[in-house]
Amino acid sequence: MKVPFCLVARNPSPSPVPNPGDSFCEAGRRGAFDPAMAKRTDYGLQVDYVFRGAEHIVRMTTEGSLLEVEVEDRLTTDQWRGEFDAAFIEDLTHKTGNFKQFGIFCSMLESALAQSSESVTLDLLTYADLEALRNRKIGVGPRHPSAAKTSPLNSKRYLILIYSVEFDRIHYPLPLPYVGKPDPVVLQKVIRELKEELALLKAKPGKDFRDVEIRRLREELQRALEEKQMMESVLLSSREELPVAPKGSGLKEVKILKKVVQTLEEQLTKERAKHQRLAARRLQESRQLADEVGRRPPGLEVPGEGRHPPSAGRAGRVMVLGLRPVTHLELRGSL
């Protein structure tokens, strides 16, 4: 008998939905199953699942085109198991009106077990529950079959894969015959295998993912402490540069002072450009005046000369016209 054993937490956190056709190992590599919560053995998956308030263990194994599902009542240890080939699964989905290929159906079942998608869920029903569900779906009242007829059927359980789509819910029932209590021989074998695996992990602590994770967290903590010390030293040096600044406002005042300096530099640059333009314009005007004086014909009198003595203001203007041209360097020095 094939016994899959993979441990998954009772309420695993939501994770990406496996792609259609992914096997369990492919989904695990893609992150659809948390490696810290589940591990694969013979492509099997085992989870704890609560059906109608009762805790159960659900095991799923896929090998080629064969699907095996086993449900165990955690309290009574009763087991129900069923094997389904690809033809059965595809015929079952075809009858529901929502056909699914074998690989896609297995991916949906894995996702429902891992509780990684809200669109697929599970339920566990007896034959009577299943009949009531069917009658309610077609609008027929409840029936009461004889006890002789229902006795073998009531021993079965039906694992219902519920696929919720827009405005509809599709139920895929998987019949699981009753197989009784667990075989003590099989349980002893499983216990022995688990002990061997545990001893192997203890013998190689360096390869244990928990040790790797602890080492990584310690390195991150060390880096964080170093960054904290560096920031504290920078803050302390800034406070020493500004001793009069209030506590906690050193960095803020440094930023304000830098902004003020930047603004003053921009204003100084603008003033320099303005003065350079003004000096250039004055120099050009001086040269134009000098050229005009130089081009005046000899003997040409200035209006008013010879008839009235020049006033102070007029003489001042004549003297200005008689000055030599002012150089650029002299004009800038006067400014």
Automatic annotation (TrEMBL):
Biased composition (Basic and acidic residues): 282-295
GO cellular component assignments: centriolar satellite; ciliary basal body
Coiled-coil regions listed in the entry: 207-281
Highest taxon above the source species: Eukaryota
InterPro entries, sorted: CCDC61_N
Keywords: Cell projection, Coiled coil, Cytoplasm, Cytoskeleton
Subcellular location: Cytoplasm, Cytoskeleton, Cilium basal body; Cytoplasm, Cytoskeleton, Microtubule organizing center, Centrosome, Centriolar satellite
Protein name (record): Centrosomal protein CCDC61
Gene that this sequence comes from: LOC106555039
